[in-house]
Amino acid sequence: MSFPRSAHLLAGVLATAGVLHFAKPKPFDSIVPKQLPGSARTWTYVSGVAELGCAAAVAHPKWRRFGGLLTAGLFVGVFPANVQMALDYRRKPLPQRAIAYGRLPLQLPLIAWAWRVRSSATK
């Protein structure tokens, strides 16, 4: 995949996820680690804003290097929510467990994708 196309696709994925945090926040609320202070909804909105900000940075050529770095950090930062989801879904039906468990290794290619976008951006 060519670099600009890859960056724009990543920006689209991030923007879609960011909008979903506001349009349908309940599923995101449910995976916020309970150890975090404050309300789950606040964390859902904060992470939605972060995804939208990363999307904008990755989409703009001038900010793409920084956006790729921020996005890789975001993907690392949301990993605890994926762990929380896997723990919470241990006793759910198999299809739901498979989705929850499948999210864990998915973070690695997402981090790598963001890093490739960062590394391929012009300085």
From TrEMBL:
Name of the protein in its database record: Putative membrane protein
Top-level taxon of origin: Bacteria
Species whose genome carries this gene: Saccharopolyspora gloriosae
